[in-house]
Amino acid sequence: MVNEETIWAALAEVADPEIPVVSLVEMGIVRGVALDGQNVTVTITPTFSGCPALHAMQADIVTRLKALGCAEVRVETVLHPPWSSDWISDEARRKLKAFGLAPPPPHGGHITLTFFDPVACPYCDSTNTSVKNSFGPTLCRAIHYCHNCQQPFEQFKPL
Length: 159
What we know:
Blueprint: H1 4-11, E1 30-36, E2 39-44, H2 54-68, E3 72-77, H3 90-99, E4 101-102, E5 129-133, E6 141-146, E7 152-156
């Protein structure tokens, strides 16, 4: 029997296509689930309105929920309120760091951070780091360099 709890559990298994160590639920991208019999509508908010992985996320959600037994799956993209890095779960922050991607600091909606604030290296925790490029392989990441362990790393930007 498909219910809201089983749907959320299945969605928790849908990996972020760009960062496969975290799920779309852990990243705060999945915002809601509405169930009408065996039909489900999933609401998502991508990290950026032009996120290149948007179609992959939608397809992965549909595939996973149809495999669960949902008759019809609709994925709605909502851009308001815009996605916030505060929506990333604590577990996802831990996984991002273990993956070598510095997680953004929580900001509670008061973003006073700049791209030049010290960012802790995910490898050695040093803040003796510098920005090498404000834009990494995706719009939501920046490239940094750690002067202590001499490792380049990416940071998920605080948004």
